[in-house]
Amino acid sequence: MDLLGRSFRCTCGREHHVPIRRVVVGDDAMVRMGEFARDEFVARPGPGNTAGGARAILVADRNTYAAAGDAARSALEGAGCDVEVLVLGGDGGNGRCVQGVLEADEEAIGRVLARLSGCGSESDVALSKSPEPAAGVAVSAAARKTFAVAVGSGTINDIVKYASFKAGCPYISVPTAPSMDGYTSSVAALLLGGFKRTLPAAPPLAVFADLGVLSRAPSNMVAAGFGDLLGKLTAGADWVLARLVNGEYYCELAAELARSIALECLERGSEIGTRTKGAIKSLTEGLIWSGIAMLMVGNSRPASGAEHHLSHYWELKSLREGRPQPFHGTKVGVATILIAGVYADILGRDPRGIDLADLKRRHRSREEREERIRRFYGPMAGEAIIETAGKYLPWEEREKKLREVVARWDEIRDTLRGIVPGADRVRDALEQAGAPATPEAIGFSSDWVWEALANAKDLRMRFTVLDFADLLGFLDEIASAGAYKRSQGGS
Ligand SMILES: [Zn+2]
Ligand SMILES: [Zn+2]
């Protein structure tokens, strides 16, 4: 907990900065939020701040307001804030609603921005990077500090995160469902001009998650959050693999933050399913801390690997074909089983037996690689080719890398075997939690599985076990047979 609001030099050699100052997951979260708002915004000591007061813009949709809006409002009012409520979404709310679903689009962002306008000039202290209250900052008695409060899950959080970033205004996150790890991230997933985009933003100043509210969240959202959390297990393995094979930068602290609670929750699937408070608390903390791990290293490496690439691949394909989308974490959970299967497969092989002459004959030229990307990525191909151009190795470089891997195979295999959970354990945990645990359960055929396993590596520059399988020449074989059978409970 002492990482919060701090900058520090880490054993990884880098300086980390965590601008989030408070994380509370508990039954008393709203009480603690009131105290925080009073200390931070209403009664911050400083010359001239006699009774300036504070203005809280509380943003929710109808469902999330019903879940936690009144409690958040009265906590803030009790702390002395003037609270303005903005309910987004259909049926009398503001903002566009597509088929009953609120989107994080220009309209919703604009409505929040309109309420926050001018707040950057009123509130100059809360965004300061100093972990301690900036003593002596003068705020005139007339100036009221404005801050936003996002009461909701992914969409509300993304809207408020982006709007408050644009307005130069701090925000507090009040999660209503443990559904994904984006609450504490520094990016916002938006729908702009009809396209899904991820844009830079600022993380919340604090997160106050009420356990009672989280325990009553819709079961498919809890299941999705559990899938996203279990994905940290294969994501962490990919990071270790990239360090071993490519000497990639690695931070043990960030890796552990993202992974340790996921590992603990792997044994608590049935408790997640029955929503014991202890398990919901762990799940929520796991998601929050994996977001903080990403903040620390400045990208999503600690929390996102091949399982996320599969999920993104399916998402793009579903969008192209106009098919409905399962939740992000639901896809990630299913993909984590598949990737755990890929690990088991590859670690059970021995690259010392690879026939280099045969592999050289099958080696693809850069043109052949790009041709393949065009075949599977359609209109996205150009972007994918540019994004992953650096992944291509001419044969001489690939052979050199292969020889290095072969020379260190025992170390690589033993290290990873100690990290990656078995596919069966991941599947059992998801099933116990009542989450979908096969591709079919979320409407994805075996063709979709094969296609994603064989091609998802071309989506992002990040090195994962799928690139490793490709390097060794095993990927096509693993994609078409082994991993998928494993996901079905076969041998
Ligand atoms: Zn995720
Ligand atoms: Zn570090």
Structural description of this entry:
The protein has helices spanning 29-42, 62-78, 106-116, 119-122, 154-167, 211-215, 219-246, 252-265, 269-274, 277-297, 306-320, 328-347, 356-362, 366-377, 381-387, 395-407, 409-417, 423-432, 446-455, 465-472, 475-487, and strands at residues 7-9, 15-17, 22-26, 54-61, 81-88, 97-98, 101-102, 145-152, 171-175, 187-192, 195-200, 206-210. 53% of the residues lie in helices and 12% in strands. The protein is an alpha/beta fold and 491 residues long. The protein has two domains: 7-217, Rossmann fold; 221-487, Up-down Bundle (Dehydroquinate synthase-like, alpha domain), CATH 1.20.1090. Helix 7 runs parallel beside helix 10 (277-297) and helix 14 (366-377) packs across helix 15 (381-387). The protein is built from 21 helices and twelve strands. Helix 2 (62-78) links the parallel strand 4 (54-61) and strand 5. The protein is elongated and about 75 Å long. Strands 3-12-9-8-4-5 form a six-stranded parallel beta sheet, with helices on both faces. Strands 1-2 form a two-stranded antiparallel sheet. It has a two-stranded antiparallel sheet with strand order 6-7. The structure holds zinc ion (2 copies). One zinc ion is lined by residues 10, 12, 14, 16, 251, 253-254.
Quick synopsis:
By secondary structure, this protein is an alpha/beta fold.
